[in-house]
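Entry 12.
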Amino acid sequence: MFDRLIVGVGRNPDKSTLFSVDERVRMLKTLTEQLCCDEPDGAPVTVTPYEGLTVDAAKQLGASILLRGVRNLNDMQYEAQQAVTNRQLSGLETAFVMAGQSFAYVSSTLIRQVTAMGSDPSVLASMCPALVIDALLAKKRENHEVLRRTGGGPGN
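Predicted 3D structure (C-alpha cells):
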C-alpha cells in the first residue's frame, strides 16, 4: 500500500501514560522488526519519537499521507474530525484502516484497568503482544503511579 511507513510516537499532554515515549519506541521497534521479518517484501518501517503536532512531524519526516487505525464508530467520528483539521492545517490526507473485530473495543484505558486491578495481566494475551504483557507486569511490580491511580495500588 505504501513505499515506506513511519510510526510516529508522540506525547499527548492531556493523557497520563503508563509507558514513556522512549519505552513505547523501544517496544514498537522490536514489534515492527518481528513483523517485518514475517513480511520480507513489505515496505520498510521506521519508528521515531516526535514532539508537537502530528501533522508538523509528518511534514518534517516527508510523509504524504497519515495512516490512522479505527476501532469502531466512536473512533471514526473523532478520526474524521481530526482528518479534516489535519488537511486544513497541513494539506495532508488521512487514510483509515479498520481494526479487526477482536480489537473493536480494546483501549489503553481497558488494558491499564485490567493490569491495575486484575491479578494477572497475561489474561490480555489475545489483545497484547507478549512483549507488552511483560512490560505491563514490570509496571505492576514497580507499583507505577498510573496504575495506582487506576485503582491497583495501596490505599485505593
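Annotation: The chain has six helices and four strands. Residues 106-156 form one domain.
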